[in-house]
């Protein structure tokens, strides 16, 4: 889903800006997306670990 949005953005940007600017924006977008995915997966792992720890004593 996110990839489709990024591709659409690239198409819009490339039609209005120069090649260098397009690559610059593309790189920034990719790094932002990668950072967001990394943060989300780390948060997920932390939440799962916390849930597991809090469930163990109860059962």
Structure description:
With 59 residues, the chain is mostly helical. It has one domain (2-55). Helix content is 88%, strand content 0%. It is built from two helices and no strands. α1 (2-16) runs antiparallel to α2. The longest helix has 37 residues, at 19-55. The radius of gyration is 19 Å and the shape is rod-shaped. The mean pLDDT is 79.
Number of separate domains: 1
Structural class by secondary-structure content: mainly alpha
Largest sheet entry: none
H-E string: HH
Number of strands: 0
Proportion in helices: over 70%
Query: What is the typical, i.e. mean, pLDDT?
Result: 79
Strand content: under 5%
Radius of gyration, in angstroms, nearest whole number = 19 Å
Q: Quick one: overall form? A: rod-shaped
User: How many separate helices?
Assistant: 2
Residue stretches low in confidence (pLDDT < 50, at least 5 long) are none
Q: How far apart, in Å, are the first and last alpha carbons?
A: 39 Å
What is this structure's SSE topology?
Layout: H1 2-16, H2 19-55
Features:
59 residues; mainly alpha; 88% helix; 0% strand; rod-shaped
In short:
This protein is mainly alpha-helical and 59 residues long. The chain contains two helices and no strands.
